[in-house]
Amino acid sequence: MTVRHFLDLSDAGGDAIAAMIGDAIDRKAARRDWAKGKPDADAPLAGHVLAMIFEKSSTRTRVSFDMAMRQLGGSAIIMEAGSMQLGRGESIADTARVLSRMVDAIMIRTDDHAKIEELAANATVPVINGLTDRSHPCQIVADLLTLIEHGKALPGLEIAWLGDGNNVLHSVLEAAGLMKFNVRIGCPAGYEPDPEFIAIARAGGARIDVTQDAAEAANGADVIVTDTWVSMGQDHAEAKLAAMHPFQVNAALMAQAKPDALFLHCLPAHVGDEVTQDIIEGPQSVVFDEAENRLHGQKSILRWVFGQL
Ligand code: CP
Ligand code: NVA
């Protein structure tokens, strides 16, 4: 069988993403109120080890994958790239070949997407994208799970993205084409997402609108999503922050959306910048369900790469 990598959502496709979300809902319900480190009853990844490589900071991705492996009956090894020979110049190809001899899967958080492609090309075990400068597919599995849990059916859903056209938005766009929802992007000129992702979404049948008017993007939306204005590895450029300010998710902007609209943010948040305190702490915000769902989503992504879904 060919190795299943999860570098982007399209590696799995819409049916597999739907299966992951269904599996996550079932597994989450089956272990409600259990001690968090207790393995699921069937321990489907017993004996399996995931190696994680971090070239950037992480709280949610790191802990959710570690706990996911424990709950699936396996275990994880967490490595900072700077403490590996990778950080001293050992090649990605050799790192991939060595780790493939010792562990069952590799997750990496890195900068240049070409690095994860090279890792996957040289690995003989599954490679999972824990965020690159280009995309963040694991986040979107958790986001879609959260929306479904809160009663939002995906087909035809109107999702408004406000702010920077970044890695997380790229994966939202990829999901739109696969799961048939629509995205209105409100962002300043010069900070649009990569047109390749808009084209992918449209080719999948999604309606994608791009506007420089924040209220127009939010108007009538079912979901409002934002993210940091300065992603890891980017400069805190004053010009960018000033350009982003009209796209802040605040009460006036939220009022443009449907009354039962949800607010999503992958976290970490910069309260007072991309979102105000009243919104992220308010009744429409589901950001901590979203964060918890990183754990449940990772478990189903792991089961998929191992051919269990
Ligand atoms: N949302 C997310 O990926 O969080 P971390 O950077 O903490 O992993
Ligand atoms: N866009 C953010 C997401 C962090 C989880 C970043 O890349 O820093």
Could you characterize the architecture of this molecule?
Helices cover 40% and strands 14% of the residues. The chain is an alpha/beta fold. The chain has 2 domains: 141 residues, Aspartate/ornithine carbamoyltransferase (Rossmann fold), CATH 3.40.50; 135 residues, 3-Layer(aba) Sandwich (Rossmann fold), CATH 3.40.50. It has a 5-stranded parallel β-sheet with strand order 7-6-5-8-9. Strands 2-1-3-4 form a 4-stranded parallel β-sheet, with helices on both faces. The two termini are 14 Å apart. The structure holds phosphoric acid mono(formamide)ester (CP) and norvaline (NVA). Norvaline binds next to helix 6. The site of phosphoric acid mono(formamide)ester has 8 residues, from helix 2.
Give a quick precis of the structure:
The protein is of the alpha/beta class. It has helices at about 15-30, 60-70, 90-100, 115-120, 135-150, 165-180, 195-205, 215-220, 240-245, 250-255, 275-280, 285-305, and strands at about 50-55, 75-80, 105-110, 125-130, 160, 180-185, 210, 225, 260-265. The protein has a five-stranded parallel sheet. Strands 2-1-3-4 form a four-stranded parallel sheet, sandwiched between helices.
Major sheet: arrangement of strands: 7-6-5-8-9
| Secondary-structure-derived class | alpha/beta
Task: Give the proportion of residues in helices.
Answer: 40-55%
Architecture of the largest domain in CATH? 3-Layer(aba) Sandwich
Silhouette: globular
CATH topology of the largest domain: Rossmann fold
Structural Rg:
19 Å
Per CATH, the superfamily of the largest domain is Aspartate/ornithine carbamoyltransferase
Number of domains: 2
Mean pLDDT reading:
98
At the first level of CATH, the class of the largest domain is Alpha Beta
Quote the distance from N terminus to C terminus.
14 Å
Model regions low in confidence, pLDDT < 50 over at least 5 residues:
none
Report the major sheet. Answer: 5 strands, parallel
User: Could you tell me the strand content as a percent range?
Assistant: 5-15%
Q: List SSEs in N-to-C order.
A: HEHEHEHEHEHEHEHEHHEHH
The tally of helices reads: 12
The number of E-state strands comes to: 9
